[in-house]
Amino acid sequence: MRKLLFLLGLLPFTLPLYSEYQPGVCGYTLEKGTQVYTEAFDRAIEFVKMNQIQGDIVEFGTLEGFTAIIFAQLMEKYKINHSLHLFDSFEGFPEITSAVDLNSYEVKDYQVWSSGAMSLAPSVPTLIQERIETIIPKDAIHIHKGFFSETFQKKTLKSKPAIVHIDCDLYQSAKEVLSKLFQYDLIQDGMILLFDDYNCGRANPKFGERRAFKEVMDENPDYSFSLFYYYGWHGAAMIIHQEEKG
Question: Which of 28, 67, 77, 203 has its CA 20 to 30 A from that of 233?
Fold first, then answer.
């Protein structure tokens, strides 16, 4: 019955990995989390649609599919005829090797991010696929199971995405994803990068997605960015600009 209700969209994803006061994500109740992410993603999708920025929506860090389902619902709302790519190991965090992460608040002090944490049942990718198939066409859904080092290769994405949702938590994972986006020439003018954990680590620029983003932008001077908006207490949306070459 639980699976049937889920597939019908009557039973939303919840995250039993979190404590009772965190039945959603990022410390939100399910209702609050749905509101925060729906409003944030709606702004991003409306922006790329009205600016005629073509491309897929790509998510790095899917977990149980909470935000992926919201993306699918908005793709249907705005009639986005592109694909939704979901990258996740579904085996939890990778081995944490970066000194940046090992010294971060979430790893060293709070111990909420650790190797193998948030691992999921083998059935989860299939459940996500089946649920999203009730919203957007089956051939528009691409689930890439495995660690980013294995699944995100040069030819994995066939074209430049319009929106990339980076929910990698760790600095080392975010840095890898961002570096590959530039290395594989997957950046376009006006695309949006959504950072789920931009203000984690007390928003300290020495840690996490915030540090990874700054480093990669510094390494790619042909591009700049504008802060579009913050969402919730944790997230940030960036618009990428391609600079004119002299």
Answer: 77
Give the Å distances, CA to CA, from 54 to 57, 105, 144, 177, 214: 10, 38, 21, 21, 25
- Integer angstrom CA distances of residue 159 from 40, 107, 129, 170, 181: 24, 35, 22, 26, 11
Give CA–CA dist 115/130, Å, rounded. Answer: 28
**Distance in angstroms (rounded) separating the CA atoms of residues 171 and 173:** 6
Mean pLDDT of all residues belonging to the chain: 90
pTM (two decimals): 0.90
Q: Is residue 175 a contact partner of residue 22, using CB atoms and an 8 Å limit?
A: no
Residue 200's nearest CA partner among 243, 159, 171, 221 is 171
For residues 84 and 49, what is the distance between their CA atoms, to the nearest angstrom?
A: 15
Integer Cα distance of 68 and 128 in angstroms: 8
- Opening angle at CA 30, ends 29 and 31, nearest 5: 90
Contact 169/60 with Cβ under 8 angstroms?
no
Residue type, 148: F
Q: 188-244, pLDDT tens digit by residue? A: 999 999 999 999 999 999 999 999 999 999 999 999 999 999 999 999 999 999 987
C-alpha span between 114 and 50 (Å, rounded): 40
CB 210 within 8 A of CB 75: no
Query: How do residues 46-105 score in pLDDT, each as one tens digit?
Result: 999 999 999 999 999 999 999 999 999 999 999 999 999 999 999 999 999 999 999 999
